[in-house]
Amino acid sequence: MATTTVHLLRHGEVHNPDGVLYGRIPGYRLSERGQRMAHRVAEHLSDRGRDVVAVVASPLQRAQETAAPVAATFDVELATDDRLIEAGNSFEGSTIGKRPGQLVHPRYWKLLWNPLRPSWGESYVDQATRMRAAVDDARRTFAGHEVVLVSHQLPVWMARLSFEGRRLAHDPRRRECALASLTSVTFDDDRFVALHYTEPAGDLLAGADPVPGA
Predict the structure, then answer these.
(1) For all residues of the chain together, what is the average pLDDT?
(2) Mean pLDDT, to the nearest integer, of 118-141?
(3) Residue 140, phi then psi, degrees to nearest 5
(4) SS3 at position 187
(5) Is CATH 3.40.50.1240 what the domain over 3-204 is classified as, yes or no?
């Protein structure tokens, strides 16, 4: 029996002084604190003697920068998987995450008709499906070892809810997926057996950018 662990790593804090909901917009890099978070995760995994044989990241800059120290620590080449990208969002580029009161404006009403899907962006089902596929491919390719997949808050949360057999519709305020957190999914052969959540950079979270869409 091969025991395999796939670590879903959310990227670190992003430099975003204007509070933009940046979504898939290119060019958003890690802040200085975000860089420290990325190195803290690499140290955390190394200190615990993890058998990490692959690091794969979303194509977005913040995910690539978070993945780089982990890949360097374990001396593996950083790979990219488009399935790990941030959720599509029609509010991308706005400051609604920082000032949600803007949602009362009539121009946004057409996007809010079904919050359970959600109607303003990529469906929860589609996110869970692509994330599960990425995890399953990593599990099969690196069976018996550990893999780090670097993604974004909502896709990671969708994967977790899916593995745990919970409803995908949820209250965003209740997501357990902090910056630079690890949602670690363990399999015996192809059977999901455990999920463990940790915050290696927890002491760096106080005062970190709270704007969602990361």
Answers:
(1) 91
(2) 95
(3) -70, -40
(4) strand
(5) yes
User: Higher confidence at residue 212 or residue 168?
Assistant: 168
- Does the predicted TM-score (pTM) go above 0.85? yes
For the beta sheet containing 78-80, the strands, ordered from the edge strand earlier in sequence to the opposite edge, are: 78-80, 52-57, 146-151, 3-10, 182-188, 191-198
User: Distance between CA atoms of 200 and 181, rounded to whole angstroms?
Assistant: 6
The torsion defined by the Cα of 187, 189, 190 and 196, in degrees rounded to 10, comes to 0
- Residue located via tokens 């958003």: 28
Q: Classify each residue of 2-38 as buried b or exposed e, where b means 16 or more C-beta atoms within 10 Å of its C-beta.
A: eebbbbbbbbbbbebeeebbbbbeeebebbebbbbbb
Q: Cβ(98)–Cβ(211) under 8 Å?
A: yes
Q: How many CA atoms lie within 13 A of 42 on its CB side?
A: 21
Q: Which residues contact 210 (CB under 8 A, 6 or more apart)?
A: none
